[in-house]
Amino acid sequence: MPDSTTVRNGTCNTTGNAVYGLGLIGALIYFLQQADTFWEYVLALLKAVVWPAFVVYQALQSFYG
Predict the structure, then answer these.
(1) Cα 29 off chain centre by
(2) CB 28 within 8 Å of CB 12
(3) What is the 3-state secondary structure (H, E, C) of the chain?
(4) How far from each other are the two terminal CA atoms of the chain, in whole angstroms?
(5) Other CB atoms closer than 10 Å to residue 7's CB: what's the count?
(6) pLDDT tens per residue, range 19-38
(7) How many Cα atoms occupy the beta-carbon half-sphere of 7 within 13 Å?
(8) pLDDT classification of 2: cutoffs 50, 70, 90
(9) Residues 6+ apart with CB under 8 A from 20
(10) What are the distances in angstroms from CA 56 to CA 33, 39, 42?
């Protein structure tokens, strides 16, 4: 019988993935609208993937800045 600490419940993970997915789509649209060249489109795709880092950075900068 597995230990209770090793049993995992996947219900919370689904909600987080949905929120991240919607944020990814919104960020992708936002960054693609600002792109003009091919490399700016590539950079927009990369920025859309790491958009939470931008949010946390801006939040901490406004909090401590």
Answers:
(1) 13
(2) no
(3) CCCCCCCCCCHHHHHHHHHHHHHHHHHHHHHHHHCCCHHHHHHHHHHHHCHHHHHHHHHHHHHHC
(4) 52
(5) 8
(6) 888 889 999 999 999 999 99
(7) 4
(8) low
(9) 52
(10) 22, 25, 22
